[in-house]
Amino acid sequence: MADTGRLHPYRVLLSSRLRSQTAYRRSFAMDVLGSVAIGALEFGEVFVIFTNIDVLGELDFAAAALLFALANICFSLADMIVGHADRLPTYLRQGTLDAFLLRPLPVLAQLITSDLSLRRLGRTAVAVVVLGVALPLNDISWGPDKVALLALAVVAGTAIFAALFVCAAAVQFWLVEGSEFSNSFTYGGSYASQYPASIFALPVRVLFTFVVPAAFVAYLPTLALLDLAGPPGLPAWLGWCSPVMAVVIWGVALTGWRAGLRHYTGAGS
Fold first, then answer.
1. 154 or 104: which carries more pLDDT confidence?
2. Are the CB atoms for 193 and 71 separated by under 8 Å?
3. What CA–CA distance (Å, rounded) separates 143 from 30?
4. Which alpha helices (DSSP H) does 141-218 contain, by range?
5. From the DSSP assignment, how many helices (H) and strands (E) are in the chain?
6. Cβ neighbours of residue 169 closer than 8 Å, sequence gap 6 or more
7. Does the structure show a pLDDT above 60 at 1?
8. How many angstroms separate the Cα of 36 from the Cα of each of 163, 174, 218?
9. Phi, psi dihedral angles at 229 (to 5 degrees)
10. How far is CA 66 from CA 153, 215, 246, 250, 267, in A?
């Protein structure tokens, strides 16, 4: 009962946001269609690439579609739940964050529950459709381990992107006007996660594997699902380590967030 009471303010906040988004149905429908168009265009980019080549990295079109689907499901879910954390620079400039600090609730939890962008479900829907088509096209030796790996990949990948959004928000306590810089890692990580890490030069591969762990979202789980060996330095068994990487990156995100809050001295409002 105590937990239910503590969660009640968050439920009220989320309910009010959901009602406000669906109050104007045509506008909401247009937003969802726009999100669908973005997802379709990004998959069209992958399709066009494979009209000119048969294999990208070590993946054929079916495997690349599986990679695209996993990456986009994870990113769109994280973007829907936590993506609005990138509004923190606006809150800092306007002094809105000071109101968050006055409430007897964790600031990060308030920021996360301050919005829930349902329009991003359009991109999720495109990715789910691609996943539904790609799974039968790939020669996967299905068993309980592969089913668990697929489920873990979606959960851990969403957690990794969500942590990256929190990391990017935490940096704004020092940069304030540096949202474009931090977005290059979140949205850049999303773009990089849609392609095999093996096609990148070694420094970029290291960046998007061990600094911004985009390869752990979809590429490494895809290798493990397809029983592919993977490039040097990135063996397929690392695909099982996505939950570990999610825990690590969330540790970094929460540490940075707490340091940022301690650094923040208010807007003087």
1. 154
2. yes
3. 40
4. 144-175, 179-193, 202-206
5. 12, 0
6. 85, 86, 88, 111, 182, 257, 260
7. no
8. 24, 35, 20
9. -75, -35
10. 12, 14, 21, 26, 46
- DSSP 8-state assignment for residue 56: B
pTM above 0.90, yes or no: no
How far is the C-alpha of 227 from the C-alpha of 182, rounded, in Å? 34
C-alpha distance across the termini of the chain, in Å? 37
C-alpha of 114 from chain center: 18
Burial letters 107-126, b for 16+ CB under 10 A, else e: bbebbbbbbbbbbbbbbbbb
Spatial distance between the Cα atoms of 266 and 269, rounded to a whole number of angstroms? 8
Long-range contacts made by residues 238-242, C-beta under 8 angstroms, separation at least 24?
239/149, 239/153, 240/149, 240/152, 241/216, 242/152, 242/153, 242/156, 242/157, 242/160, 242/216, 242/217
155-214 confidence digits (pLDDT tens): 999 999 999 999 998 988 888 777 777 778 888 888 899 999 989 999 999 999 999 999
C-alpha distance from residue 168 to each of 111, 260, 263, 265 (Å): 13, 11, 15, 19
The phi and psi torsions of 181 (rounded to 5 degrees) equal -65, -50
